[in-house]
Amino acid sequence: MLRSARPIIRNHDAVMSKNISIKDVLAVVDGTPASLTGVDQAVAYAGLYDATLAIVVVTENLAWAAAVDPMAYAEAMEASEAQRKEHVAAVRERVAGAPVHVEVHALFEAPGLLPGLAKAEGQYADIVLVPGTGGWQSDGLRRHITEALMFAGVPTMVMPAAWRPAPITHAALGWNASLEAFRAARTVLDLVEPGATVDVVVVDSLDGDKSGQPAPGTRIARHITRHGHNALVHAIASAEHGTSAALQLFAFESRADVLVIGGYGRSRALEFILGGVTRELIAHQRLPIVFVH
Questions:
Q1: What region holds the UspA domain (predicted)?
Q2: Domains of the chain and any CATH numbers
Q3: Mean pLDDT, to the nearest integer, of 180-204?
């Protein structure tokens, strides 16, 4: 039997957002005790926008691995089904009395099918929330589901356990002028509060103004400013940290509420081989990170 403390984040303690872009929030969790902080965060985040919250509880059906042995298959199915019911019950108990409308349902399939099913769920949300490192029983499944959701075209926020949702008044935007970065910039406009500060962060493009063209990041900062925000361009070097660490360190030390980046500008296969920025940020979070593909 799962037992856990009552939610540590209460929605009515937060200031209501003035942003009206968020109406459907999806959270994907596995229902284990480690994921319940993510459930609290999702309730609080949806409450900021008076949005509807759907929570999908994913449970791996391990019975397929014992399919060659009818007796072992039946036992594995029974155990997996019991785990599914326990995880869903834990999440439903956690959201009891939530100040927003919450729907909870389960995805119960072979591990290889769960990311694709989660991707389909994400197509009907304004944003998807996923607990970050340490918030899942299987970190490999967490990563696969996060990637799948990203490729659904929905902004996907990975939440560190210490994060307390609040209106976003300061965002950092990772910028490299790629198609994914342009989409990330548009997502920033949907996520932040009116008059927010937006740091446009350019990594390792310190000499981009020598050609007589505007310095990297200048034009997107101008566009964001025309939407009523205070946009500033910051050119930083990755140095020994690498691009992902440099981006996250800048956002964290600047006290940004969130880091928004365009995810997977190259193919996933190439990113896997080269150790891409997206994969590294999915693996480690110091603040909430929103991935946009």
A1: 23-134
A2: 11-159 (3.40.50.620), 170-292 (3.40.50.620)
A3: 95
